[in-house]
UniProtKB/TrEMBL annotation:
Full protein name: Thymidine kinase
SUPFAM superfamilies membership: Glucocorticoid receptor-like (DNA-binding domain), P-loop containing nucleoside triphosphate hydrolases
Keyword flag Protein biosynthesis: no
Reaction(s) the record says it catalyses: thymidine + ATP = dTMP + ADP + H(+)
EC number of the protein: 2.7.1.21
InterPro entries in the cross-refs: P-loop_NTPase, Thymidine_kinase
Record family assignment: Belongs to the thymidine kinase family.
Assigned keywords, A-Z: ATP-binding, DNA synthesis, Kinase, Nucleotide-binding, Transferase
Organism encoding this protein: Nocardioides aromaticivorans
Length: 223
């Protein structure tokens, strides 16, 4: 029986690395798969991991139809045993429904990898639909850490170094604090991401701010 599996974790929990490893493991057994991604940090149509591995992939645009794509490929004689779907949080709910149909009707395994919640702590629509539909949802064992050492469960977005909790849901940046890695948005704001524990996400306490506060003679500005 084919399955729809959702593997989730925070931004630097190693999801893309696991996506590529999963692809490798199945390909090594002679199975034939296809890779998909959306807004990968390396650019369109590539699955890239922070450890330096990359693989070509099909970019999932908002109007991409997984069901149509799969039926067309099979009709043309292609063999498909599994899909690797990276950055699945960016897929639409409809696309996740299509993936469930591909699993059930065409017996193709679908392995999805993605972040659960956005920088506002809200579920991404694609992730919400995956939690609703997946045969299994697994939280990745490689856990990212907040600067305080606690388990990082939330994704923070910073703009020019300041944490924000409002804005467009999809702005691609990196968790690397190196300004070179930050994405220059249209209005020339440096957007970056950082993983935090819930307490420090609630307080807007990024690593940089914690450092600044610890050097400041003022009392801690906690409410
Ligand atoms: Zn913390």
């Amino acid at each position: 029986m084919a399955e729809l599996i959702f593997r989730t974790g925070t931004m630097d929990a190693g999801k893309s690395t696991l996506a590529l490893q999963t692809n490798h493991n199945h390909a090594a057994r002679g199975r034939v798969g296809r890779l998909f991604t959306s807004h990968d940090r390396a650019g369109a149509a590539v699955v890239s991991s922070r450890l330096g591995l990359t693989a070509l992939a099909q970019e999932v645009e908002p109007d991409f139809d997984f069901w149509r794509y799969t039926v067309d490929a099979l009709t043309q004689g292609a063999r498909i045993d599994y899909f690797i779907c990276d950055e699945a949080q960016f897929y639409t709910a409809e696309q996740v429904d299509q993936l469930a149909k591909v699993v059930d009707e065409l017996q193709i395994d679908v392995f999805c990898f993605g972040i659960l919640t956005d920088f506002r702590t809200r579920l991404f629509p694609g992730s919400a639909r995956l939690v609703e539909l997946a045969d299994r949802t697994e939280v990745l064992q490689v856990e990212a850490l907040c600067w305080c050492g606690k388990r990082a469960t939330h994704n923070a977005r910073t703009e020019d170094g300041v944490m924000v909790t409002e804005g467009e849901v999809i702005v691609v940046g990196d968790v690397d604090t190196d300004p070179e890695a930050a994405v220059h948005a249209a209005d020339d704001v440096d957007v970056a991401y950082e993983v935090l524990c819930r307490q420090h996400h609630r307080r807007g306490m990024t690593a940089a701010r914690a450092r600044a506060v610890s050097l400041s003679p003022e009392p801690l500005p906690f409410p």
